[in-house]
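Problem: given the chain below (238 residues), write out its structure.
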Amino acid sequence: MAQKHPAPSPLIQLRGLTKTYQTGAKVFTALDGIDLTIDQGEFTAIVGRSGSGKSTLINMITGIDEPTSGEVLVASTPIHQLNQEQLAVWRGKNVGVVFQFFQLLPTLTIMENLILPMDFCNTYSVRQRRNRALSLLEKVGIADQADKLPADLSGGQQQRAAIARALANDPPLLVADEPTGNLDTQTTDAVMQLFAGLTREGKTVVMVTHERDLAHFFTRFITLADGKIIANETGVPA
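Solution.
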């Protein structure tokens, strides 16, 4: 008798998610009643034209912005109910964010950039932090750059360092906003392979992108238009 594998558990659940902004006398609806579930281990692309709501959606998932109405649950935590102090603590332990422009602190070494999130969340003992950071830099292939400043690294190396930093506290979720937008084709492929490998290890990656030629890496595509989901498609992982 074939062994049954447990069904993947939802890591992200959005229910009736709406976000509006008051601009003068007008109300702009950035997200309009979004219902979405993303399972653990999925590599999900968020696509759509400029102004479709992509950045607003990931800001909801990461708790950077709060919904006007609706619910946001990540790893069963209703983050729409948390205050700013609670959100900061929750985000530090549960979400790694990777930006298009790396956002590494320029006066700190790459090693120090990785240790900083661990200092903030106190997830690892002081004695463990350097070894933890070094193992992550090895994972992304730049351990030899640990004691250099960000300016001394190439763009691809900086993005690898940013991914390692996002993993510092071993969060279940990585959110990436156009992380390959400033990288050449070869480096883009290496970064995407890295993300795909993380999902195979059980991480969930949600990535905003406009690069359709990366489609083969994703397991899911969410297409937004005017604040609504117009397509929710399952893809084939790399």
